[in-house]
């Protein structure tokens, strides 16, 4: 077949395109946070090493699964998912670290990263809700809940 199959899931194409664009930002933030968390897992040192090493591993493992779910939702909406460092760098709101920060700075940066993902998801929510895209709304709700919890747990280590 050399023609594209029409997508008829009850969401207008213009809404699907805009939702996929927003999910692409969520994917970029999630992948960038994955990479940052994995980097910090490898390079953390200090008295909280074991705690942070294990916590960071739990978080990057969950993010590795999440990026697949987000990318598959983008594809379900009929768009291509971004998948290169170049594309992610253009779309993400998360800054890459300079060098290898101290453990507490790693935690602080990861709190900011977790919160950035929440803000990206929350910004898309009204468009998803207006379009009646319950599947994307469910995905966003789950991501916000998880990242808010992760931010709280990380923030608790700084108090």
Describe the secondary-structure layout:
Layout: H1 13-43, H2 49-76, H3 85-91, H4 103-131, H5 134-158
Helix pairs in contact: 1-2, 1-3, 1-4, 2-5, 4-5
Describe this structure in words.
- The protein is elongated and about 55 Å long.
- It has helices at 13-43, 49-76, 85-91, 103-131, 134-158.
- It has a single domain (13-82, 102-158), classed as Up-down Bundle (Ferritin).
- It has 159 residues and is an all-alpha fold.
- Helices cover 75% and strands 0% of the residues.
- It has 5 helices and no strands.
- Helix 4 (103-131) runs antiparallel to helix 5 (134-158).
- It comes from Bdellovibrio bacteriovorus.
- Residues 21-159 form the Ferritin/DPS domain.
- Belongs to the Dps family.
- This is DNA starvation/stationary phase protection protein.
CATH class type: Mainly Alpha
**What is the count of structural domains?**
1
What's the architecture, going by CATH? Up-down Bundle
The CATH homologous superfamily corresponds to: Ferritin, core subunit, four-helix bundle
Number of strands: 0
Short note summarizing the structure:
The protein is mainly alpha-helical and 159 residues long. The protein has five helices and no strands.
Index terms:
Ferritin_DPS_dom; 5 helices; 0% strand; Ferritin; Ferritin-like; mainly alpha; ferric iron binding; 75% helix; DNA starvation/stationary phase protection protein
